[in-house]
From TrEMBL:
Keyword Zinc set for record: no
Record flagged with keyword Chaperone: yes
Broad class of where this protein is predominantly found: cytoplasm
Protein family per UniProt: Belongs to the UreE family.
Bilayer-spanning residue ranges: none
The protein, known as: Urease accessory protein UreE
Annotated InterPro entries: UreE, UreE_C_dom, UreE_N, UreE_N_sf
Cell compartment(s), UniProt: Cytoplasm
Keywords for this protein: Chaperone, Cytoplasm, Nickel
Function, as annotated: Involved in urease metallocenter assembly. Binds nickel. Probably functions as a nickel donor during metallocenter assembly.
Gene: ureE
Residue intervals of the UreE urease accessory N-terminal domain: 3-64
Amino acid sequence: MLLIESLYTGTAPATEQLILDFDARTKTRLRTQLASGEEVGLFLPRGGILRGGDKLQAQDGRIVEVVSAPEALVEARCASAFELARTAYHLGNRHVAVQVCEGALRIQQDHVLEHMLTGLGAELTHLDAPFEPEAGAYASGHHHAERGATEAKIHVMGGAHG
């Protein structure tokens, strides 16, 4: 089994891909497979979240690119900026991971949260897309210079209905 224990920050191109959904990208210990089917074990420093485009270095020197897998998501759009902000508040109050898009919010599909969003007046669209939620405001973790030195890891709470 190929072992991966570190992030890679160099400029060498990746020769392998590791396709993971958001839940898997929050784990620092994981047994999985590369896109080629080769078995791999992740043993990464605790506290980080992998993002699509991150690179990892395998024990044998290979560079592996992390690819965000498409997931079942719900996109919420609202009639006004006020309603969108109100919707974001209610999702945040439930400690839900949220991806902020231009004029919309995306969450992982959850029928209870979808019911709440509909009740708040949001128009919902179901889609399959990579999920890259916002980082938590008070959490710290690894970051990328191209995204800004203040980016923090996502604060993942147990359960979507907290």
